[in-house]
Amino acid sequence: AFESITQAPPDPILGVSEAFKADTSSDKLNLGVGAYRTEDIKPYVLDVVKKAEKLMLENGENKEYLPIEGLADFNKATVALLLGSDNKAVKDGRVATIQSLSGTGSLRLGAAFLARFYPGRTVFLSNPTWGNHKNIFADAGVEWKEYRYFNPATIGLDFEGMMADIEAAPNGSVIVLHGCAHNPTGIDPTPEQWSKIADLIEKKNHLPFFDVAYQGFASGSLDEDAASVRLFVERGFELLVAQSYSKNLGLYAERIGALNAVLPTADLATKVKSQLKRLARALYSNPPVHGARIVAYVVGNNDIFDEWKQEMAGMAGRIQAVRATLVEELKKRDTKGRDWSFITSQIGMFSFTGLKPAQVENMTKKWHVYMTKDGRISLAGLNKARAGYLADAMIDSFDN
Ligand code: PMP
């Protein structure tokens, strides 16, 4: 039956980790996947997560199925974290929230929902975007196109290009927006620009689909990082939001996140929720409980919540410090006086270096530095001790 199957290419992001594992050099450095590492470049389990898990053990939590829509306490906590604890849309019952399989699964559920209830529309993704967005929509049978986002000349946002492409999109298109800490560029619109984007999306009757994978990781403030989504909700938009707890709670493997649909009426929210449940039932039936209990515990408990904010600020702070060290090390070695300030102005886990594919190959083949082909490095995988080595590799690669 399957004789004609050919080999699939390695995943552009997770394939980098596979190649890293196979490299035997002691110099090797994995800056591919966006996963937080400590200053010793070790994986990190947050203390608040350990506390939640200890309590779960003590309470003897069972492993019964969750309802299709997930853990009620989690759903309550996650929408409050996203939109604010006394958000009017939530109080009015206009938000349908479904616990889903982290950011990816929530986006995939949203894509399935669009395929069924908003057929024939095109989804517009930023160029560049997180590599998996294209797969997710394509596999759900939803056509995607791109809007301009990055200007290589300024290593900044191509705001005019972005606006022109959103304007040119057919009325009623779906516009995917990164809520904060845009991946891979680390460049977000300013509040004034967000407001203009909202004006245009409203004028064009487009449907915003926010991807919030780094809440708390961009500015260090959970509220500030949700400001883009909250602006759109305050303005009365109908919209979708996918949330992930992979990065901000370090729950990568627990697959915990949510899909939120904000609707004009409570009645419609109830109906939409029922259809999302129907889609989820066929895709994976019901979501895993472990991560949901952790999030519900951390977000729903004042003392622990404050502790989480401190731990998150610690993670964000370490990445910022590493960015600064890298810039210093680059300046020390750079004989051409280039401007490296983009590394400290970009936010979140990543830096979009501008290294071309051949230069990326030099980084990996000669220097054993693993990164994605688009020139993105994850600063979360770097420490101060290795910043000089990375600077050597970058200068050598830029100069060749
Ligand atoms: N969206 C973006 C922009 C991301 O960077 C990520 C994580 N790399 C995700 C969604 C989803 O990740 P996960 O499925 O692990 O939550």
UniProtKB/TrEMBL annotation:
Ranges for domain Aminotransferase class I/classII large: 27-393
EC number: 2.6.1.1
Family label: Belongs to the class-I pyridoxal-phosphate-dependent aminotransferase family.
Protein's organism: Klebsormidium nitens
More details: In eukaryotes there are cytoplasmic, mitochondrial and chloroplastic isozymes.
CDD domains in alphabetical order: AAT_like (cd00609)
Entry keyword set: Aminotransferase, Pyridoxal phosphate, Transferase
UniProt name for this protein: Aspartate aminotransferase
Catalytic reaction annotation: L-aspartate + 2-oxoglutarate = oxaloacetate + L-glutamate
